[in-house]
Amino acid sequence: MNNKSSYIAKGGLFVTLTLIVLYLTTILKFNTLFMLGVASAIIPLALITTSLNNSILVFIASSILCYFLVPVKSVWMLYTLLFGPYGIVKFLLERLRNTTLEILLKLLYFNLLTFLNFYLYKRLFVPNFTLNYNIVLILIGVQFVFYLFDYALTVFINAMRKYKL
Fold this sequence. Notes:
Layout: H1 3-27, H2 32-49, H3 52-69, H4 73-93, H5 99-124, H6 135-163
Helix pairs in contact: 1-2, 1-3, 2-3, 2-4, 2-6, 3-4, 4-5
């Protein structure tokens, strides 16, 4: 099989796998963020096995199909704005080979898109939403969780590179 047809076939499999994982978030309500994290790991897998352009197409196709097939639109919004493109953003930022700058830019990306997601969620889905917790503690905790997520994704990527799927 030549590269082009191989990339198309793999891309279709990655889109299907992403949609299955995202749809599971509607069935397994207690693990939504974990399942979104699993779905976000599929894009780096596409990067490893195909190309950057193909991975971008996998993300776009997954986002569009998720909008129509996954009934919970907040899952679509979180995947499309934050979790889905993170694998591509991570790939591009880690090309800089400057760990401090990478971490700062990843945190900037995460925080900006988290606030955008929160704002859109509040405006579109729950206009009367109020946060009854200390926002500073939440922000600190979320930064730590994001760092753990980034580390877990890095471990996954390195394992996949080692086995060269």
